[in-house]
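Support case: user asked for a sample of complex input and structure output to validate their parser. Sending the pair below.
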Amino acid sequence: MPKLKSLLDLEELRKGIIASKDPSKQCITICSGTGCHAYASEKVADTFASELEQQGLSEKIDLRRTGCHGFCERGPIVVIFPDEICYLSVKPDDVSEIVSETLVGKKIIERLLYVGDDGKPITHENDIPFYKHQIRLVFGDNRLINPQSIEDYIGLGGYEALGKVLFEMTPEDVIEVVKKANLRGRGGGGFPAGIKWETTRNAPGDAKYVIVNADEGDPGAYMDRSLLEGNPHSVLEGLMIGAYAIGANQGYIYVRQEYPLAVENVGVAIEQMREYGLLGEKILGTGFDFDVIVHRGAGAFVSGESSALMTAIEGRVGEPRPKYIRTAVSGIHGRPSNLNNVETWSNVPLIIKHGAKWFGGIGTEGSKGTKIFSLVGKVNNTGLVEVPMGMPLRDIIYNIGGGIRGDKKFKAVQTGGPSGGVIPESLLNLPVDFDELSKAGSMMGSGGMIVMDEDTCVVDVARYFLDFLADESCGKCIPCREGIQQMLVVLNRICEGTGREEDLDTLADLGDMMRDCALCALGQSAPNPVLSTIQYFKEEYEEHIQNHRCPAGVCKELINYYIDPEKCQACMICMRNCPVGAIDGGKNIVHVVIQEKCTKCGTCLEVCPPRFGAVSKLSGVEIPEAAAGGIKVR
Amino acid sequence: MEQQDLSKVDEIIDKYESNSESLIQILLDVQNEYRWLSRPILSQVCERLDIPMTHAYHIATFYKHFSLLPQGRHPISVCLGTACHVRGATRLLDRVVQAIGIEPGQTTPDEKFTLNTVNCLGCCALGPALVVDGEYRSNLNAKELADIVASAD
Amino acid sequence: MSTEEREKQNSSERQTRRAVSDRRVEGVTQPIAPAVEAARQVELTINGQAVEAWEGMTLLQAAQSVGISIPTLCHHKELSTYGACRLCSVEVIRGRRSRIVASCIYPVEDGIEVLTESEKVAKHRKIILELIQARWPWVDKELLEKYGAQPGRFEEKTDFCILCGLCVRYCTEVKKANCLGFVGRGAERQIVIYPERAIEMCPTCEGGNMGCRSVCPTGTMPNEFAHTGPRFGKKLPLAYPVKSYSEDNVREVLHTVGDWRMPWVRSQTMPGK
Ligand SMILES: Cc1cc2nc3c(=O)[nH]c(=O)nc-3n(C[C@H](O)[C@H](O)[C@H](O)COP(=O)(O)O)c2cc1C
Ligand code: SF4
Ligand code: SF4
Ligand code: FES
Ligand code: FES
Ligand code: FES
């Protein structure tokens, strides 16, 4: 591969790539992201390859494995270009039919299409409601490129922004544009990237570092993975532009090792860049030298915190340190170090290409551009969605997410992960941006959006997050380590029905202290899930404490399964399915749950035929006494 | 216990040019190779990198990926992340526990399976999710789990 | 200015100078403070009192230089800073912004107003004391009373060790012996001793008295290793949790040192320095 020694070389290469691609040629793209992979998309792709081979079509039709499209739940996703016919949940068995019917016969296979609410099938990906309301600036190219091919990226205008920066802009110009665009960090705090870059640039020291934070510790969020996995070059290009602006020659990518495909694709991307001379010395013939090292994280949420992450890169335990001196001034080895999130970096080439004004035209006053959310939980359409900042929560959940699963009622949405909070139904019209979410007592975080229905107990949710944090905090400082453990003690007793009158005050006091006194942002934000659920669902806490009742029927100690003798048909299904033999009864004898034996696994409720609907969950009420010797079914 | 062959440890350390800054990367590669960090392995790493055991052991116990006990040939990790949690991850975990007969953190006596829980696998839209032998799987039922158990060697 | 006043000022200045050269970066053992002569003077107020300090000093040092005492637990001036107990939290006001910071690490800044006993500080300190009390039931009564702490408010789980990390820093930084370290994280974090190393190093440490024991504010650290470890057979464990030593050990230590209650009432001198 010839090294690119000038801007002209790059442009020639791009022209060559574009010329070699015939836009009218048929191309089958198969999503090979982790989600689709779990649904055997590799097998589908292999079957396509051999099917094309067999039919002698390999030359005529292209095959491309792409990154995640976002609608992982309906994977494997196959899109056929140039018509952009979108097939969902494709099985290897469907392949030969797709080849002969659609590719050769130009006919559409309806059964593989998305079916809209009105029962009508939808052919094109972009018409599916899940996609229709999105604006996919950052995430959109994922579906078009093979993440392991730098040529695919370059063919779509890749490294054009880098060229522009290196040849037409001074580092100060670049910082000015990023500041003007008001690009705010997508990894948590929403700190303006341009200002951080400037601080790092101006900090004394010759050696400086730029770092990609791909630790993505928020359980329930996976946009960073999909972006790094599906379009690694966009992140790397952003990183290089940042390095140029800041005056850094060394970059790091901190990626969790639980993401093997992301690690692999980033590795391949870096190799390809080296081959083309896009990394190394004198990049594109300029005086700019730059290289990147991949550092795998070994599994610790707290190591995603900036000072901890930098300590880990030095090979030490990834514990936070007090940041009274900012990492932009003193980071890795005490040198100025600029850390940004995956999504933040991949916004950079776009801003350079289209300008600050264009970027500023999207989003709200204080939050510009788009944000990718991981829309998961109890919604109909789960997946990754990219929307302009400021879109009301309701639109995201109902228009894109298709509303709540089953006939359930919406209860709350959790944003910001373990550092965030819940947002109740009354705030559904909230425009989603950094500031509005903070005002509502939650936060943007990295973009997790977990939708909860009426079957979710908010006390249990708070307990879930605290449990997570008790394990994931580094345990260094007392406010966080001891505070979380004591909060958990209180939450556990509330969930078990032994809560005390003063418990809510105790939680508030602890939370107050932790917010102010904990050493790092993990401990400072750890009370959020608790305090925000108390703020919006105080009655639910009080029900637990005063009436020993869990209104959502979740807290095991507060519920009982009960078989209504009037409704039971003695079908014996639940009896047979109960894993602990806790159901008494027999043929023609009404069944009864033996409460002492019941482990409250809920199997009986699940298996009782809906037409009988005899099993129910009781909470906070007396269980009616069963008749001795059993009752005969009427 | 039979003597462990530590030549791979040396190879890995050589690859990182005995740089103590690469300690976490080295331990990750060693863990992937040997499936656990035994005491002789840790001692060897410390000696070669000239670092105190206090340092290596803290790292080995701090990060979730490292294991100080032998692991089974087929690691199973069940996701208990938020997205999976609200969609019944605990019930999936119960099914797995029933299918292989061990609790999270344990290894079967025949060293076939090790069961662990993790906090997010990054395929939250498929939840509840688990990963077995590096393969990501979505909401397996009892029958599918039984098949996995039967087909593992 | 009277001679007395001048004397007082001089002595506080001497103290500050010493403090500056003592300054160490968190987690790093070498002092990095600029030469005292080069340091810039900084003016701030602490509890309403005007204080002159040098750039690079911490709020704690500045406060101590004028005789204002702030309770500390994980701090020792001879060791690297750590900033983990947060007992030394104070309120810092700049303009209309107020925030709580750990005074043992927060560097002095021009024009800030520091309150070491504000209402907020007192409220938080009370809870921190209650949390410590739940782990180590012998917290200084006077201090508990001063902040109105209510012992028993939180569930007790007596581990004795409160993870201040003084012993680890002492062993690593002063003795360079590496017998002690942290393991685990979060609620599972603890201090372990490495017997193989300890049996080699501890018997000669401070004349057989294990220097780390003199910095341990809770009396958790056993002295068993000074005389080889009787509880271990031939095969020494790789690491051994310090907290597994019995309550008797702690009580005995408390008994022998008599009035020793918490570190801020103890001498700040350190063996082996
Ligand atoms: C406990 C903790 C975990 C964090 N984890 C991540 C993470 O996984 N990914 C990330 O980008 N930022 C994470 N952050 C935020 C980072 O500290 C940092 O603010 C961010 O990476 C800066 O990039 P940005 O300005 O582009 O958002 C975490 C913060 C804390 C306190
Ligand atoms: S707040 Fe928590 S995670 Fe952060 S330093 Fe303290 S103990 Fe560690
Ligand atoms: S043993 Fe003592 S000195 Fe060491 S961390 Fe525990 S309380 Fe602190
Ligand atoms: S992995 Fe295929 S759509 Fe997400
Ligand atoms: S929460 Fe389970 S995969 Fe993310
Ligand atoms: S003395 Fe300052 S944090 Fe412990």
